[in-house]
Amino acid sequence: MTTENPTTTENPAPTSATSSTPSPSPSSSLSPTGIPVPAPTPVVSVKPLVLPAPDRGEDLRVRVSAPVTGGELPIVLFAHGYGSSLEGYGPLTDYWAARGFAVIQPTHLDSRTVGLPEGDPRIPRIWRLRSADLRRILDGLDVVEAAVPGLAGRLDRSRIAVAGHSFGGQTAGTLLGLRVREPGTEEVPNLSDPRVKAGVLLATAGRGGTDLTPFAAGQFPFMNPDFTHLTTPALVVAGDRDDSPLSVRGPEWTADPYHLSPGAEGLLTLHGAEHSLGGIPGYEAAETTDENPARLALLQQVTWAYLRHALGIDSSGWTAARRALEGGTHPLGRLDTKEGAGRRP
């Protein structure tokens, strides 16, 4: 048994495992914020659940993690970064699941585990297929709920959030109202979903056009987001050392989703954080370049508190986070907020 890291075995049939953890103090001593975070509860995690997707070319595989007890669980759909899979992001998804959320993680078609060949006709549409993956999960919640032992009747479908890291941030953003011009056309589809009430955008790309490097402009023609219609409440997380090779602007680029989105009501800037934001891609993940347990703990706490606030569950944690971080004196990060941002259901 491991702390907040439920282990499952990949088999043709879905498998599950339960993580049982000792109870730490209610709030991590690594980054004291005063956020009233509860001790973790055991989590059941099941993978892979398979949702038929004949129009996708590959069935959609997802992982579901949820606390073994409790009802009216709010739902978070998590979109991974380019090349990752449902196996990643345990430091965040396990943390949320151990504290009252049902977290659903799809494997998108760009995953290294799928291995699309060069020239596959789906590649230019990857950005749009990713959005469709999240909607397919929402449409298939009955199947998902029935497939996880003990989960039936415990989901609160009136409280659904999306979250994503890097490319996954753009994916999540499309369900919040972010729009992307279809490469090679004049179409700018509205892919927002009214079932989604809030979002968390982690190290997400900013404006396109002249803000992109030549490499990014050539390789990722869909990287031209329009944030003006992103009106659903969202928290944006950026690292002040996330100097992306995709933009000529430096770390400030990933703060664009906050500054340009009417719905973005918070910007958490993590001091010293690079693209991995302290270690969210996975436990001992090779791509993590800035591992920092204290920074990660702060991110875990603030995102958990924000999701509870934005979904109308409890705002005490978000209030505590604002009190601790808005003054700009916390050594690990700063929180900026906009009053009145974001439409409420």
UniProtKB/TrEMBL annotation:
<dbReference type="Pfam" id="PF07224">
    <property type="entry name" value="Chlorophyllase"/>
</dbReference>
<keyword id="KW-0378">Hydrolase</keyword>
<keyword id="KW-0442">Lipid degradation</keyword>
<protein>
    <submittedName>
        <fullName>Chlorophyllase</fullName>
    </submittedName>
</protein>
<dbReference type="InterPro" id="IPR017395">
    <property type="entry name" value="Chlorophyllase-like"/>
</dbReference>
<feature type="region of interest" description="Disordered">
    <location>
        <begin position="1"/>
        <end position="43"/>
    </location>
</feature>
<keyword id="KW-0443">Lipid metabolism</keyword>
<dbReference type="InterPro" id="IPR029058">
    <property type="entry name" value="AB_hydrolase_fold"/>
</dbReference>
<feature type="compositionally biased region" description="Low complexity">
    <location>
        <begin position="1"/>
        <end position="33"/>
    </location>
</feature>
